[in-house]
Amino acid sequence: MEQSRIAVFASGQGSNFAALIEAQNAGRLGAGRIELLVSDRPEAPVTQRAADAGIPSLLLRPKEFASRELYEAEIVAELQRREIGLIVLAGYMRLITPTLLEPYAGRIINIHPSLLPAFAGKDAIGQALDYGVKLTGVTVHFVDGGMDTGPVIAQRTVSVEENDTLESLAERIHQVEYELYPEVVGAFADGRIELQGRHTTIRRK
């Protein structure tokens, strides 16, 4: 597997996918090249983004498979055929099973709109507003078998303003995501990320 060969998994609009494509076109993904989009929702807008960018898609409906494991086995076969070395989750709304986790251990990353371990799971931005925190942010982390529980790779803070709404805070968080995720993906593709236990180091260029 080539760590520079990337598959992006997405289920929705694909705004982080678009940011990664833009970074790649601008030379900001290092050695990384996005080789494939994987989506569990063939009708999702992200699939059109991939088509517009000339990136192949693997579009599979999980309900058409007898189990989650069989669904993921089909994905793994395609990833291995394409020699994918890094899986980037970008709004992929499914928990991953060992069928995919085991062959790609330490090679699956995700982005989450909070400073993990705070506000894991769904509606992290709403959780932060409801709790009344003054700082939230963005976390890029490795994926393990839990819900947003993998080792942290990078984090960036976002201040919560007094009059913030869900929409206004989400907009600022998303802008940070669009900057941070390409940085981390590029570092991984260049072999500059080291993981020891739960501790991650990103070497400078």
List the helices and strands and how they pair.
Elements: E1 2-9, H1 15-25, E2 33-39, H2 45-53, E3 57-59, H3 68-81, E4 84-89, H4 98-101, E5 108-112, H5 124-131, E6 135-142, E7 152-159, H6 166-189, E8 193-196, E9 199-202
Parallel strand pairs: 1-2, 1-4, 2-3, 4-5
Antiparallel strand pairs: 5-6, 6-7, 8-9
Helix pairs in contact: 1-2, 1-6
Describe this structure in words.
There is one protein chain. The protein is 34% helix and 26% strand. The chain has 205 residues and is of the alpha/beta class. It starts with a strand and ends with a strand.
Write a short abstract of this structure.
By secondary structure, the chain is an alpha/beta fold.
Number of alpha- plus pi-helical segments: 6
- Report the biggest beta sheet as strand number plus sense, adding barrel if it closes: 7 strands, mixed
Order of helices and strands: EHEHEHEHEHEEHEE
The overall pLDDT average reads 95
Helical coverage, percent range? 25-40%
Q: What global shape is seen?
A: globular
Straight-line N-to-C gap: 22 Å
Class per helix and strand makeup: alpha/beta
- Order of strands, widest sheet: 3-2-1-4-5-6-7
Count of extended strands: 9
Low-confidence stretches: none
